[in-house]
Amino acid sequence: MKKLLALASIATVGALTVSVQAVAQTAEIPRAYLSVMDMSGKVAKNTGNQIYSVSNSNLQLCWAASGIPLEPANLNKVTELFIAPSVKAKFVKPGATIKVENERSAITSMMGSADGKMIQTCWRFDQNDPLGKYTLRLNVNDIQFDDLVFELVK
């Protein structure tokens, strides 16, 4: 009886290993998304572009990343490197470490994931921020995403 239980256990572990490998092979590709969101209603609305008008106080620039291993608690290391059109750009994020070098601002913080599948945050800009094209280089848990580009306009 003990041998049968051991054989059944080995068979189960083998099947589980094959299942995990199959899931790993079909896992999501790491992706990052950037959208300008209109927060004026009860539900945020995607504007469908990456152009942010600083004269509209209802807008927020939001990014989301998925397809990567995430921790639900504030255990995900996130670095947002903003490359601005001018050295006048200033970024503030409570609890984050911010390093500024010329037009580059690197904001590093620990963030949580509500569902363990996606991590996201939003930023606000105003009329004191330099207008023009910005690049966001996003790194989550040592996974570097493709550059995300947006533009601030009046």
TrEMBL record:
Q: Which residues form the signal peptide?
A: 1-24
Question: What keywords appear on the UniProt entry?
Answer: Signal
In Swiss-Prot or TrEMBL terms, this protein is called tRNA pseudouridine synthase C
Look up and give the organism this protein is from. Answer: Bibersteinia trehalosi Y31
